Give the backbone structure.
Amino acid sequence: MRVKKFVAPTMPEAMKLIRKDLGADAVILSSKEVRKGGFLGLFKQKRLEVIAALDPQPIVPKEKPRMPVAVQQSAAAATSKAQPDKNGNERVMQELHQLKKMVAAQKNSEEDPAFDGFFQDAYHHLLQQEVDEQLAKDIIVQAMSQLQGTDSAELDQVCEQVQQEIAARLDDVPFTGITYQKKVLQFAGPTGVGKTTTIAKLAARSMLRDGKKVAFITADTYRIAAIDQLKTYAKILDIPIEVAYSEADYERALTAFSDYDLILVDTAGRNFRDSTYISELKKNLTLNDDTEIHLVLSLTAKAKDLEETFKQFSKLPVQSIVFTKLDETGTCGSMLNLLLQHKMGVSYITNGQDVPDDLETASADKISSLIAGGICHA
């Protein structure tokens, strides 16, 4: 077996190098993100390190892989009644481990759909973006159908068509920012997702762009730092703020700000797996015709955690989602998985700490570009 390491900016580019060097029968054993280059350890760039292999005698489908003779002999020696050799046992374990990886890689290769040309690169790119596997297959199949053939499709055509397919699937997802139809906007979400900073960005935008009269209420009394942070933003923006330690405090604050155009409420952020926290939040939030809840989720979270978080907070009447920390991740596929599965609206995407600049209104074209745009640079 010939095993070789390849380093490239993206998976599609790595696949090109693998095909060129090892041929179409090569299989991928592993891949991971690394940092290369830079000067004196600084300014290193993200790269993808892929280990690929080519077996000159590939495994025949539906036939159990045979253990190499060397491994059989070593294993037999290791289990004999003679005094075991430490180095020999280590070699046996290494060879068994390599064999296990080879079989797994071969299995994955057989299960991986074989798309033609740049469509295969696009498919692997979607998987790298953490798009659900079946969803990625469906998108590529539909893109191939729209282009009516694969042999002559160019990379930019494939990229554009995949983006269109993703955007089309988001037609039923509402993308609406603040409309000022509701006065009280409550922001919920787990700890550390950036609720407070997001609230400050929305306040600044509402004041500077739309000329609205804005007030703050913070119910995040679990963390003193959160109160101080919002008070700092309030001082900079010259916005009044009230701290609600109880439900009565919250009602008094709403009454005090009754003549304001917009009241932004920062709720407590805690472990989303704590069911009592969600119950308390639901009990303490005031829900009426003049109130809506926005769920704040971080794009740096694992796809599974993002789904579990949404399910926990779906017990609240969530109106829309704000996705944060786009600048801290290179994968956005979990966002697409969540939106298509639950058809939940998206209001904003944040991509930095600057107030109010790093805040963008979400759209189907924006999300499809984030997920599929990298194909064009393969």
